[in-house]
Description:
Elements: H1 27-32, H2 41-49, H3 59-70, E1 75-81, H4 85-88, H5 92-97, E2 101-107, H6 118-131, E3 138-141, H7 150-161, E4 166-169, H8 176-187, E5 208-211, E6 217-220, H9 236-242, E7 251-256, E8 259-263, E9 267-273, E10 279-286, E11 292-296, H10 297-307, E12 325-332, E13 337-342, E14 346-351, E15 354-361, E16 366-370
Parallel strand pairs: 1-2, 1-4, 2-3, 4-6
Antiparallel strand pairs: 5-6, 7-10, 8-9, 8-11, 9-15, 10-14, 12-15, 13-14, 13-16
Organism: Hujiaoplasma nucleasis
Domain CP-type G: 63-227
Protein name: Ribosome biogenesis GTPase YqeH
Amino acid sequence: MSQDAYxxxxxxxxxxxxxxxxxxxxxxxxxxxxxxxxxxxxxFRIKNYSETFPYEVSNQDxxxxxxxxxxxxxxIVKIVDIFDFSxxxxxxxxxxxxxxxxxxxGNKVDLLPKNVKHKKILSWLKIMLRNQGFDVLDSVxxxxxxxxxxxxxxxxxYKYKGNRNVYIVGSSNVGKSKIINQILKRYLGAASDIVTExxxxxxxxxxxxxxxxxxxxxxxxxGVVNKHQYMHYLSRQSYKATYPQKEVKPLVFQLxxxxxxxxxxxxxxxxxxxxxxDIINVVTYFSNRLNIHRTKTDRANxxxxxxxxxxxxxxxxxxxxxxxxxxxxxxxxxxxxxxxVFSGLGFVTLRAPFHVKAYAPxxxxxYTRLAII
Length: 373
């Protein structure tokens, strides 16, 4: 094969010299396969054996992607994880979308309780975008897992793109590749998934383009890494326990002052004061597999020391040495509902006024925002 070829699963440049590098394929297979059949060894093993590989897109490679998008009049389709909006809406995306037409897609809507109205979520998204200084052409909520609302997504893409190419962008693990696969199967005749999907961050390592029906191209792009999310610090086993796979069932805790909630051994919420009432209703939105434990605040430190990896898990073993914890103090005195978000893990909802401390590893983002639900 004389000209450069690229893996159809992750976008890596095909090579047959170094098994430890992205894009490796044996010379024998390289001779046998046509360019549209090429899948690198890494993608093959991810798809067939669910293996993980610690590759990351280099800064130089990612800058090349940014430069290509910057220099082209294209439509940007920005994907966010609606369950982890703060963690998936990373600042680097502003560089990609600056002075570009873009559509916002809130993925993983299937994780939210079914009684939540999409109209309410879309209104909330508009407020969040306005607060961050973004102008968006339109927005839509989808479930890439189940294919919900893809007709509306495609309608918006064709409405706004004209004859331009389309770039699917977003942070790691927001579901970009799954969205591309749904589009390929539903609208472009693919019989099965083409782009490689994985729970591991940065499965896509280069640009992967596919022709739309009108001749323009839709591109999957490497995920922007947000190191403030838990996924970068947990083993695969622990991450699977924290990552919601289906609709999250909210739990309601009535907490007094000086009571604490542990979210596995990954985060903690202390109630300092309800300001105007003795009891605070705390609604939790986390993976249904994550153990949530209530205790008195004066016992919390000892409990964490004695029960980490057992009652308070994940993490599941001492080999997962999480960075040191810090607390974030929130004191809000109005009467609105707020979420306290542990980036990449979940969130709790409380009605102000309240005074709380939220603990997490110092590398993990902890935010407060107007309640999404």
